[in-house]
Amino acid sequence: MAETTQGKSAAGRKVRKAVLPAAGLGTRFLPATKAQPKEMLTVVDKPQIQYVVEECAVSGIEHIIIVTGKGKNAIEDHFDYSPTLERFLEERGKIEQAAMVRKISDMVQVSYTRQKEPLGLGHAVLVARDLVGDEPFAVLLGDVLIPGPNPATKQLIDVYAATGVGAIAVEEVPKERTHLYGVIDGESAPQPPFGARLLRIRDVVEKPKPENAPSNLAITGRYVLPPQIFDCLARTKPGAGNEIQLTDALRILAQEDGLWAYIYDGASYDAGDKLGFLKATVEIALQNPEFGGEFREYLKGLNF
Fold first, then answer.
1. Interaxial angle between packed helices 274-286 and 292-300, expressed in degrees from 0 to 180 and rounded to the nearest 10
2. Burial of 155 (0-12, 13-18, 19+ CB in 10 A)
3. Which of 17, 107, 213, 271 counts the highest number of beta carbons within 10 A?
């Protein structure tokens, strides 16, 4: 994947925007999601989607586009200003809490657009086309949490800035679990400063059986993509369930313009199912400087 003239030109373009698909119905979490978005389910002390927005802000993203659907008003309310609540807290001397509420609204510019029908992740990204425009952008899945001082999104932005080619985050998974993920077929293409973590994608396979998986490197839910991905999505035919799969468009992009896989530095938590959500809650709680130590001692004292 030699760098093209287009790639050299794109490398100078800052990644300013991110798309957060949040239109799903969250059926795996019923009845909790009957009247609230799954993205607003709390992991320790913050809604899932706030972790993702904070990752964007720390990564230098200036404008977030959240793709919503029916019943997602709570997301908009969460990132909107709340002068009544702020005033209530300030009047009662809870200055730190008031500042915390205000910070949520001030983190980054947020726009919203609707995916009117559940036509897949690829379609959700395509819905954001007009708001993204002709520039590179990040995509973050709201039920994948990657907290830590070195955001996965920032790592991908660094790859794009250096090469002008799109990049997706991958991580090693047990071979028997490849059927749960999109899995890449890649070849090592080390270059400084990324080293062996950088791979050239030859193909992407959606949820392969273990015996058919081209590798054990699974897509983690973080992407930095050039605007050409929109043309790839527009040409992607609906698959199972009449949905447009982002994976299919990534295959086209990899073949036509090139695409990197990057084994990111960090740990992810899949909060998209109940067991993953519980694991995320426990592990993120253990990292909390306020009560993590006490919580660890509590867990040690449990009799199973």
1. 120
2. buried
3. 271
